[in-house]
Amino acid sequence: MKELALKYGCNPNQKPSRIYMNEGELPIEVLNGRPGYINFLDALNSWQLVKELKEATGLPAAASFKHVSPAGAAVGLQLSDTLKKIYFVDDVKLPLTPIACAYARARGADRMSSYGDFIALSDECDAATATLIKREVSDGVIAPSYSDEALAILKDKRKGSYNVIKIDPSYKPAPVETKQCFGVTFEQGRNEVNLADDALFENIPTKSKDFTSEAKRDLMIALITLKYTQSNSVCYVKDGQAIGIGAGQQSRIHCTRLAGNKADIWWLRQCPKVMALPFKEGIRRADRDNTIDVYISDDYEDVLAEGTWQQFFTEKPEPLTREEKKAWIAQNTKVSLGSDAFFPFGDNIERAHKSGVEFIAQAGGSVRDDNVIETCDKYGITMAFTGVRLFHH
């Protein structure tokens, strides 16, 4: 199949719409549903991300994409009981396989942003992974293959209309890519930079010189994630998964703050006081996510006010005070941070430190590199200048 007609483009008024190949066959097969223009953009970008994560780490990988940027990305490390609970997978009867764990991590890190996402899996989608996917609000999934049981589960989702795409894992695109803007064609070589190279971490200008093996793995995950994230972008990673992604901001400090706030929310969800919230039986997942998000925020009264808390809880919870939040966030450590270009000022490091960052990989090359290095040294942070910029537009 050389081309596939689509219902419309980015918006319903943008017709006609299609995907097609100038040479050869399309590397994808639609097994169920009718994916749209944005679905395919998310699918093909996210597939590149998980394929590269698998090649870099040797572990199954998953990504959760929204509007052509990842909301989450992770590799298939086993889940702790705490993570199982905050990702709402502690009640699953099937054993959680590595690819299922990767998906649970990618989907669970920023559940608010992942609502209505498109999913990518580096490995075959099995029954355990399909079971987790079926429970969430999602637009579709792309994977190299599906077990018969998994495909049956997914075809039953969204009244049979769920988008399921199979991709040829051996497909390799042409080395030169093109796109159009305002009728003008742009051409460039594909970004084939190798981000699984230890040489990226050899230029260490900070006093602290030690990257643990886990930190190198997490920094590779951060950099690969950033390669497929709309710029400007930064990514916080811990224990094999992105925990905060800040994308598409004009100012890098705003990216760092946005991603840091997401990382803090991920960590606060693990606070015993938050995990013990007395939710009513039968509350919808999306309502529970939103309620937790508001409870953690400075607007907690929006869910704790009289006449409101009764909609969500069996009894009124005590607020999570600013002092309690600050004390809990201070316990988060060994976080890695990647940036798709240089940090221009030390204020980015100051913000990153507040969210437990101990390891950084960034391009370097700012006229204020000395200020950035000095701020890292102030907190004992190990930072590498990779010399690689990862803009994606």
Could you please describe the fold and organization of this structure?
The protein has about 400 residues and is α/β, with parallel strands linked by helices. It has helices at about 35-55, 80-85, 100-110, 110-115, 125-135, 150-155, 215-225, 250-270, 270-275, 285-295, 300-305, 320-330, 345-355, 370-380; strands at about 5, 20, 30, 60-65, 70-75, 115-120, 140-145, 165, 175-180, 185-190, 235-240, 240-245, 335-340, 355-360, 380-385. It has a 6-stranded mixed sheet. It has a 5-stranded mixed sheet with strand order 12-11-13-14-15, sandwiched between helices. Strand 13 (about 335-340), helix 13 and strand 14 (about 355-360) form a beta-alpha-beta unit. Helix 5 (about 125-135) runs parallel beside helix 6 (about 150-155), helix 8 (about 250-270) packs parallel to helix 13 (about 345-355) and helix 13 packs parallel to helix 14 (about 370-380). The longest helix has 21 residues, at about 35-55. The model has no long low-confidence stretch (mean pLDDT about 95).
Order of helices and strands: EEEHEEHHHEHEHEEEHEEHHHHHEHEHE
Level of helix content?
25-40%
Tell me what portion of residues adopts beta-strand conformation: 15-25%
Specify the number of helices: 14
Mean pLDDT: 97
What is the distance, rounded to the nearest whole angstrom, between the alpha carbons of the first and last residues? 28 Å
* Shape descriptor: globular
Strand order of the largest sheet: 3-8-7-6-4-5
Number of strands: 15
Report the major sheet: 6 strands, mixed
- Assign the structural class, choosing from mainly alpha, mainly beta, alpha/beta, alpha+beta, or little secondary structure: alpha/beta
What Rg, in angstroms, do the CA atoms define? 21 Å
pLDDT < 50 stretches: none
